Amino acid sequence: MTLIPKPEKPSALSHTFSPAPSKTEEQLAVRPLLYLGAGVAAATVLLLSLLSSPQSPAVLAQIFTTRFLGIFIEALPFLLLGTFTSGLIEAFLRAEDLVRFLPKNRVVATIGGAFLGLVFPVCECGVVPVARRLFTKGLPVSMGIAFLLAAPVMNPIVFASTFIAFGWSGLLVGRFVMTALVAIAVGLVFALSARRADVLLPAAMLDACPVAQKRPTLGQGLAQAATIAASETFEMGRYLVIGCLLAAAMQTFVPQEALIAIGSGTVTSVLALQVLAFVLSVCSTVDAFLALAFVNLFTTGSLVAFLSFGPMVDIKSVAMFLGVFQRRAVAYLILLPFLMNLLGGVLINVLNRGY
Amino acid sequence: MNTPTNWREWIKAGILLGLALYLALLMLGGKLDNYINVRFQWLTIVAILILSGLGLWSAWQLFKADNLARQHDVGDYQHARVSGWSLSLLIVPLAFGVLFPSRPLDVNAVQSVSLAAIGGGRASASIAPQDRNILDWLREINRVDNPASFNGQPVDLIGFIYREPDMPADQFMVARFTVSCCVADAFAIGLPVQLEGAEQYATGAWVRLRGALQVGQFRGQTMPIIRPQQVEEIPQPDSPYLYG
Questions:
Q1: pLDDT band at B144 (very low <50, low <70, confident <90, very high)
Q2: B153 Rama class: left (phi>0) / alpha (psi -120 to 50) / beta
Q3: For chain B, what is the mean pLDDT?
Q4: Nearest CB to B77: which of A23, A81, A232?
Q5: CB pair distance less than 8 Å for A71 and B82
Q6: Is the dihedral of CA A331, A333, A337, A340 positive or negative?
Q7: A290: which chain B residues are within 8 Å (Cβ-Cβ)?
C-alpha cells in the first residue's frame, strides 16, 4: 500500500508527479537540529546540576538510570501497540472504503473528522500518511485537517495510556475535550477560508493509484503489518528514548524549586510545556507517562496543553506536513493549534484559581 | 546479501529480541517493581510478546534472502529503512539496563518528604493499626479530624530514615516512596519519629519500628508522632515502594 507511485508503473493519468515528499530531504534538515538541540540542552542541565547538587555523580547516575528505565518500560508496550495497529491499518484498510461513507455537510464532516480516529487508531506518526492517502481519495480539506489534528489523541490506545497514567481525572477529560475543540475549530477555519488548491500540494490531490487496490490475503497483510511495525518501532522509538532521557534528567538534575518557579505561572507554565512538547516530539501513545514527571510541579492547564498540543504539532510531524500541505497552510497548522491550546491552557488555569 | 542495510537489519532484530529478553529477565528476577507499579506487569508481558514476535519475524525475513528485496519495497516514505541514528538510540535503554545494576529509588532521590497521601477513602480504617504501612497511616491521619484520637495506637511499620536539615537530634522521619504508575511519579511520604538516641541510626537505613503514636507538633501542625519502643535495622525489602 504505498502512497508513492512506483516509477516502473506509470499511472493511467496524464500527469507526471514530482516525486512524493522525500523523507531524506525533509527529515535530514530537521534531524541534526533535533539531536544537537537535545544534546546541548541535556549537557547544560547535567553540568549545572552536577556543580550545584550535594549528591555524588555516581549516586545521581543511579537515580537517573532508574527513572529513565521506569518511564521507558512503562511506555514501551503502548509504543508497540501503536506501531502494530498502524501496521495493521496500513495493510488492511483501504481509503476508498472509508471515503464512501463520508457526510456531505462541511461542518458535520469537520466534527466527524475529529472523531474519525476512534475507528481509525493512528498516532501522530501514522496519521500524516493516512490523511494524505485520504486526501488523494477526495476527503474534504477541513475534515482531513480535523482528523489530522485530533486522531493522534482520539484513539483507544491513547485513552488507555492516559488512563493508566492519571486515572479518572480532569487531565484525562481535559485532554480529550481540548483536542476535539481545537481540531474542530482549526478544521472550520480551513473550511471557511481556504480553497483546496491553496492548502494541499498538487501531489496530495491526485489519486496516485486510481484503480482500487486489491485486498491482501490475511497472511500477506499480517506479514506487511509486522514489517511496518518493526520499522516504525525504531522510527518512533528514538523520540521516546530522547523524551525519556530528558524527562528523567529534568527530574534528577533540576532542583524542584526551579521547576515550580516556571511551572506555577498561569501563562509561562503553558508556554513552557507547549514548547517542550513541540521539541520532544514524543508519540501520543506514551506522552502521558512523560507528563507524569510534571504533575504537582506544573499547572493543570499546562499539562492539558502539553497532552493536547504535542500530538497535533511537533518537530517530526511538521517535517511530514511539508510533504502534504502548502507552506502557508503548514504555518497555519502550527500557529492555530499553538494559540488555541495556549488559550485553552491559560483558561483552565484561570478557572482553576477561581478568579 | 552483505549490504550495509543488511547488518543494520540484523542489529534491529537483535535489539528487539534483546529488549524482550531484558524485560523477561527483569520480570523473572523480581526487579520489575524497581521501575513500575506491579499492577501493570501485564503490560510488560504484552511488550515482551510483541517484541519477540517482531524480532523473530525480522530475523526470519533476513534468513530468507529472497525476501529481502520485497521487504524494502513494503514501507512508505515514513517507513523507510532504519537509520543509524535510530539504531544507536534504541540501544540506550538496553545499555542502561545491562550496564547499571537495577536499584530502586532510595533516600538519595528524596527531594522532600510529603505528609499527603495519594488515594484515600475509608479503606485505611478497616486495617488494624499494627498492620498499617506508612501510606495507610497517612490516609487515616488525613481522613480523621481529631489528631488526639490517635494517641496510644500501636504502630508496627517499616521505612527508611530521612532527616531534614533543621531537625533536632532526637527526630527523624520514616519514609517510603509511593508509586502510582511508574517511578516518574514516585514521591516520598513519611511520618515523624521522636526517639532518644536517634543519632545512632544512619540516614537512608531501613528500619522496622514498633511502638505507639503520641500527638505532638511537627512542621507547625499538630499530628501523631511515632514513639518507638523497639527499632530494628532491616535489609531493604524486596518490594521497596508502596502503591497507591
A1: confident
A2: beta
A3: 85
A4: A23
A5: no
A6: positive
A7: 184
Contact B204, B234 (CB under 8 A): no
Q: Which residues pair with B226 in a beta bridge?
A: B193, B213
Cβ distance A292 to B57 less than 8 Å, yes or no, reads no
Both B217 and B141 in one domain: the answer is yes
Looking at B99, B125, B155, the residue that finishes a domain is B99
- Domain range for B148 is 107-243
Nearest CA in chain B to A34: B85
Q: Tell me, yes or no, whether B73 and B154 share the same domain.
A: no
Mean pLDDT of A318-343: 90
Give tens-digit pLDDT for A234-275. Answer: 877 888 888 888 888 888 887 777 888 888 899 999 999 999
Domain end marker among B99, B126, B149: B99
Distance from CA of residue B151 to its chain's centroid? 32
Highest mean pLDDT out of A7-21, A231-245, A280-294, B202-216: B202-216
Residues A15-34, mean pLDDT to the nearest whole number: 48
Domain boundaries in chain A? 30-41+54-352
Instruction: Give the whole-angstrom CA distance, residue A335 versus residue A341.
Output: 10
Residues in chain B: 244
Nearest CA in chain B to A5: B76
